């Protein structure tokens, strides 16, 4: 999709020159308010449509209403918000995205949306509409360009008001972070093997002013990153650790927040090989890395006023004559000896060295990692909700709250000490899998060994990072889950 122009309009709705004017309305509305003046200008057609059987105002239902000479818009589209007492930001965001899709299907390239106080202020409406357009209209076209006759929304007009212009700019930057994360996930795994993936991230990072350092396999060996190197041994493409830093003037000496993303660019399972069915989905096993990359891009572009470090360990997990094996003992960066029981539990291995490196080198105030880590989390919470496990109650609560606000929901799972027994090793310090029961939690307990006593949270995004079916805000494929959540959370101290 081409980058749409998004601007604010002022004046009466009847004077807005657009091909399609979207009016958000509630379920079973009996009056045209707050759009009475517009209704009068078009001869009462809005109220007539609201009172018809053809439209009830249920969530995400739309009805086109023809206009008259007294209205500049070519067409009005009523957009159902559902019941007022059930309204929330995510409903509005998904409703707007659905309405944009309907408008596009009706070949409208210039679209405007009306505001109303129940939906939010002008700034909130501008932010929600901008996000809904950029996320809902996203298409991945690197390998198969969109058809020449495919209609697109080229211009969006939102209500003017205090902070609307700034909200558009901010939401554009966040949307760019999400769509880049989606592109990274959707890219063919042959085109994002660790060295190439690292250079791609470096190029984009430096273009937005982020500092970037790439640790290659030789430097990783010098540092003692045995876990990262072990996972990458079976591939002809060596692993990498990419470090991104955003440090606005005056924050350079402060303790940063570290965000860490699992970057397994393709996961066969290694010697503990996965079944062949749906293995193509494993190109998405770097969804955490994509989220960190997208977040760092966004915080640089909106210039969040805090120091933030992003760490992205990258490896390709392949079976080979030199691949790491079940039964191997691997020493991680912090000296922990890991007994490998399953080479398909590789994500926690590469995260281990990245977490240990981040804690040692940057002494962060907080650490948050994101990873498509376990199928067990999907079994527990489903495909739409991420699990959050933490050693700090306040941090966990902040992430849950941020997820609710942006519509990227996360739910806490327990971190009781009894789970530690499941990953104790008789021949090393810890095992890289705790067995069948509580798999999402034992994976988090494994990672806890590499954060020292730093306040830390682990987001298991295995469910929501990749969709097999389209939704209002994302087509099938990479979702970019976590970018909006992290940007919101990181901005709270801004």
Note down, in words, how this protein is organized.
This protein is an alpha/beta fold and 494 residues long. The protein has two domains: 5-158, Leucine Aminopeptidase, subunit E, domain 1 (3-Layer(aba) Sandwich); 174-491, 3-Layer(aba) Sandwich (Aminopeptidase), CATH 3.40.630. Helix content is 34%, strand content 19%. It is built from 14 helices and 20 strands. The protein has helices spanning 36-41, 45-50, 89-105, 122-136, 164-186, 194-207, 217-223, 226-232, 287-302, 347-362, 375-381, 393-406, 439-448, 483-491, and strands at residues 5-9, 20-25, 62-66, 75-80, 110-113, 155-159, 211-215, 240-246, 257-261, 263-267, 308-317, 329-331, 337-339, 366-371, 386-390, 410-412, 430-431, 456-460, 466-467, 477-478. The strands form four sheets. Strands 7, 8, 9, 10, 11, 14, 15, 16 and 18 form a nine-stranded mixed beta sheet that branches. Helix 9 links the parallel strand 10 and strand 11. Helix 3 crosses helix 4, helix 5 runs antiparallel to helix 9 (287-302) and helix 10 packs parallel to helix 13. The longest helix has 23 residues, at 164-186. The chain is elongated, with a radius of gyration of 24 Å. The mean pLDDT is 96.
């Amino acid at each position: 999709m081409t980058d749409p122009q998004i601007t604010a309009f002022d004046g009466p709705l009847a004077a807005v020159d657009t091909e399609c004017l979207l009016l958000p309305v509630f379920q079973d509305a009996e009056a045209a308010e707050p759009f009475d003046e517009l209704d009068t200008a078009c001869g009462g057609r809005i109220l007539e449509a609201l009172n018809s059987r053809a439209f009830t105002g249920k969530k995400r239902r739309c009805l086109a209403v023809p206009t008259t000479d007294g209205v500049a818009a070519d067409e009005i589209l009523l957009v159902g918000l559902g019941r007022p007492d059930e309204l929330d930001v995510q409903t509005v965001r998904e409703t707007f995205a659905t309405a944009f899709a309907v408008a596009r299907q009706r070949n409208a390239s210039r679209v405007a949306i009306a505001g109303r106080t129940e939906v939010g202020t002008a700034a909130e409406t501008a932010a929600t509409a901008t996000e809904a357009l950029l996320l809902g209209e996203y298409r991945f076209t690197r390998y198969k360009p969109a058809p020449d006759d495919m209609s697109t929304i080229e211009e969006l007009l939102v209500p003017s008001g205090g902070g609307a212009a700034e909200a558009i700019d901010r939401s554009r930057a966040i949307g760019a972070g999400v769509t880049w994360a989606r592109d990274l996930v959707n890219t063919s795994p042959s085109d994002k093997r660790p060295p190439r993936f690292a250079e791609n991230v470096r190029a984009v990072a430096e273009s937005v002013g982020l500092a970037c350092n790439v640790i290659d396999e030789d430097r990783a060996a010098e540092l003692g990153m045995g876990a990262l190197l072990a996972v990458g041994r079976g591939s002809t493409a060596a692993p990498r650790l990419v470090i991104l830093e955003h440090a606005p003037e005056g924050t350079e000496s402060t303790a940063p927040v570290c965000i860490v993303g699992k970057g397994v660019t393709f996961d066969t399972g290694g010697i503990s090989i996965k079944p062949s069915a749906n293995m193509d989905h494993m190109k998405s096993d770097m969804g955490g890395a994509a989220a960190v990359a997208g977040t760092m891009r966004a915080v640089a572009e909106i210039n969040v006023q805090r120091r933030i470090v992003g760490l992205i360990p990258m490896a390709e997990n392949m079976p080979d004559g030199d691949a790491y094996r079940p039964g191997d003992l691997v020493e991680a960066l912090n000296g922990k000896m890991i007994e490998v029981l399953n080479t398909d539990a590789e994500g926690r291995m590469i995260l281990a060295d990245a977490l240990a490196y981040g804690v040692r080198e940057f002494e962060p105030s907080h650490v948050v990692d994101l990873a498509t880590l376990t199928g067990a989390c999907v079994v527990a919470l489903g495909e739409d909700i991420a699990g959050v496990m933490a050693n700090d109650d306040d941090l966990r609560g902040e992430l849950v709250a941020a997820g609710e606000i942006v519509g990227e929901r996360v739910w806490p799972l327990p971190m009781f000490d009894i789970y530690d027994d499941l990953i104790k090793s008789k021949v090393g310090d810890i095992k890289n899998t705790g067995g069948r029961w509580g798999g999402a939690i034992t994976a988090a307990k494994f990672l806890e060994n590499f954060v020292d006593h730093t306040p830390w949270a682990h987001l298991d995004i295995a469910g929501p990072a990749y969709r097999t079916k389209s939704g209002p805000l994302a087509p099938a494929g990479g979702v970019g889950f976590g970018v909006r959540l992290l940007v919101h959370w990181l901005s709270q101290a801004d």
